[in-house]
Amino acid sequence: MRILIADDSVVSRHLLEATLRKWGYQVTVACDGIEAWNVLEASQGPMVAILDWVMPGLTGPEVCRRLREREKETETYTYLLLLTSKSLKEDLIEGMESGADDYITKPFDQHELKVRLRAGTRIIDLQRELMAAKEALREQATKDFLTRIWNRSSILDILQRELARGQRENRSVGVVLADLDHFKSVNDTYGHFAGDAVLREFTRRMQASMRPYDAIGRYGGEEFLIVLPGCDEGCTEAQAERMRAALDMAAMQINDEERVVTCSFGATNWNPGMDADSEALIRIADGALYVAKHKGRNRVVYQTSERPVEAPR
User: Fold this and answer.
1) Pairing mode of beta strands 223-229, 252-254
2) Share of the chain above pLDDT 90, in %
């Protein structure tokens, strides 16, 4: 584990560093409060810090306060240990209220320091477990269990956010609905486990053909909603065609048998000046998808919001 030592005393700093390295810790050293703050606010900063109370630039308690404020936004946690020669109860209360987890008095006792650091290590380990559990819950709440892409509510939220951003930045947003062709026959012929594998392979190919900032979510069953930020009509059609080709160009291996799986795409756009009505856009894309299905499937049909959905022939 990496530990930051911040102390303007050369003697105290070297003694602490030698002790910690002997115990197997990786040590980063700062000579004043500002240097300590710069180390701690870095994205991969140490998770444990021993801060001298009185330092040039920023005091130990001031560094604690700054870091605790920052941690409210980053959802991280650093175990902070104040090193002080102060012994008055009021001073110690002030130090703890600044956000320090514990303190140790100068000159420090090695056994006492080891105990404090052991407690800090347990807190950091618990914090890691908590964050891992929180991330797992977030995954469950926002991702589709089978395909691991966005679920219906999440992709709808993303669409609404991109429409709001499009209004602010005066740029278009492409909206595409995709539906696998004859998917029921895949389940009926090969079984539902094979159908699940097809859905996973479909999403893999779609993601590989999308731009990093595009988003895809499972809208329902074998239907998927795709959001294309910054795409006008030509860009939306081209992106949808690229995704269609990514599926059509190579057969899938289903139960030791090769089968080409295709998909139909209905596409539309939101453009600056239009109402940012996500439901209306999805209805237009759904109408375009309906036309694609009735024109023979495995194709992209684009509809604008200004003209009615084309009737199937």
Assistant:
1) unpaired
2) 78
Residue with the bigger pLDDT between 262 and 305: it is: 262
Omega before 56 cis (within 30°)?
Answer: no
| 310 noted as active-site residue | no
The tokens of 307 are what?
Answer: 């003209």
Find where tokens 């696998």 sit. 180
- Could you say which of 35, 162, 222, 237 is catalytic? 222
Q: What is the pLDDT of residue 306?
A: 45
The CA distance from 94 to 99, in Å, is 9
CA dist 107 and 278 (Å) reads: 65
8 A C-beta contact, residue 239 and residue 298: no
Instruction: Say if CB 237 and CB 288 are below 8 A apart.
Output: no
Measured CA to CA, the distance from residue 123 to residue 130 in angstroms comes to 10
Q: What is the mean pLDDT of the chain?
A: 91
Task: Kindly report, residue by residue over 158-183, the tens digit of the pLDDT.
Answer: 999 999 999 999 999 999 999 999 99
Amino acid, single-letter form, for residue 147? T
Domains and their CATH numbers in the chain: 2-139 (3.40.50.2300), 152-302 (3.30.70.270)
User: Sorting pLDDT into bands at 50, 70 and 90, what band is 20?
Assistant: very high
